[in-house]
Amino acid sequence: MSFSSIYGQEGPIAVLRGAIGKNRVPHAFLFYGAEGIGKRTTALVFAKALNCEKGGADSCDGCTSCRKIDSGNHPDILIIEPEGQFIKVADIKGLQERMRFRPLEGARRVVIIDDAERMNITSANSLLKTLEEPSPTNVFVLVSSRPHLLPLTIPSRCHRLRFNPVQRDVIAAFLEKEIALFPDWIIWHTLISPRLALRAAESQAVGKGAYRVRLVLENTGWLPTYVTKKAVEKKVSRGVICEIELPPGASLRTGKPRQEFAELEGRAYKSVLPEGYEGDTDDRLKVEWVIHAPQGGTVKLTARHGRAGVVRVELPLEKKAR
Ligand SMILES: [Zn+2]
């Protein structure tokens, strides 16, 4: 993946290419705009372009550095993202120490903080200190679809780049060029896009104050959640993210508060199953948590995917055991 293969974000990409070309790269960026329009992908390509051995203003995708970043093995490219509701304080605090050293292999160390608004106040203050001591070899890219939740002091220290929703004609152009199909087919393609849907959500008492919470999601669209198999290989496509929010006084016994799952197939490639089959399928996802909630209450479940949408459920904890 290179800048030239990202569609619909010509504005921010021109700024990034210009900065690399003139060798005047700001030490911190904030990429903001709606979810699922290429902010994180652009951040990764930017990291590649900054370190590419070919030395242009784009990534070549062929040199050792580009390939290492693609496979997630480059020691100077750090991606920080939430674990559970928030970004871990330790992840941000660890940065300050790390920034003192020169990059290990590349020309520039690039720190990408995805869903940056999920830093708590301690993390935000710690990051602020790091941003106040810029170094020419470190570049920060904060990515956020809800930048208004960031403390104002953070965006004010970043070069802000707005990512626009991708226009329909751009999507059509992309499909026409990349897939070389007819316009009618392209419209059809858009109509049959992946759609995340709730199949079941239930809670069940499994002991004193303990509940099993189960969420079953499916992709009711005809297309899979990934764009192409190539997108999965290049890791530019992300799986379904599921989150659980607990009632006051409750804790998780098993399962994680936030987890990324695999991609879901669409109905187009789904195997034919017997009527009433309830097992796992490629287009269905089952998530289970066991929680301890002595005071009962309600859990909030959220599942989201950049292309397939969001599902939110509020689930009262069922008292009677089944
Ligand atoms: Zn390269």
Question: How would you concisely characterize the structure shown here?
Answer:
The chain starts with 9 loop residues before the first helix and ends in a 6-residue tail after the last strand.
Features:
322 residues, single chain, alpha/beta, globular, Immunoglobulin-like, 26% strand, 5-stranded parallel β-sheet, binds zinc ion, 2 domains, 8 helices, Rossmann fold, 4-stranded antiparallel β-sheet
Q: Which descriptor suits the 3D outline? A: globular
Strand content: 25-35%
Helix content: 10-25%
* Main sheet: strands, sense, barrel: 5 strands, parallel
Radius of gyration: 22 Å
- Mean pLDDT, nearest integer? 86
| DSSP strand tally | 13
Find the CATH superfamily of the largest domain: P-loop containing nucleotide triphosphate hydrolases
| Spans where pLDDT lies below 50 across 5 or more residues | none
The structure class reads: alpha/beta
In this entry the ligands are: zinc ion
Query: What's the CATH topology name of the largest domain?
Result: Rossmann fold
Count of domains: 2
| Order of SSEs | HEHHEHEHEEHHEEHEEEEEE
Number of helices: 8
Biggest sheet strand order reads 2-3-4-1-5
C-alpha termini separation: 51 Å
CATH class call of the largest domain? Alpha Beta
Q: Just name the CATH architecture of the largest domain.
A: 3-Layer(aba) Sandwich
Describe the structure.
This protein is of the alpha/beta class. It folds into 2 domains: 3-162, Rossmann fold (3-Layer(aba) Sandwich); 193-316, Immunoglobulins (Immunoglobulin-like). The chain contains 8 helices and 13 strands. Helix 1 packs parallel to helix 2 and helix 2 packs antiparallel against helix 3. It is globular and about 65 Å long. The site of zinc ion has 8 residues, from helix 3. Residues 52-54, 59-60, 63, 65-66 line the site of zinc ion (ZN).
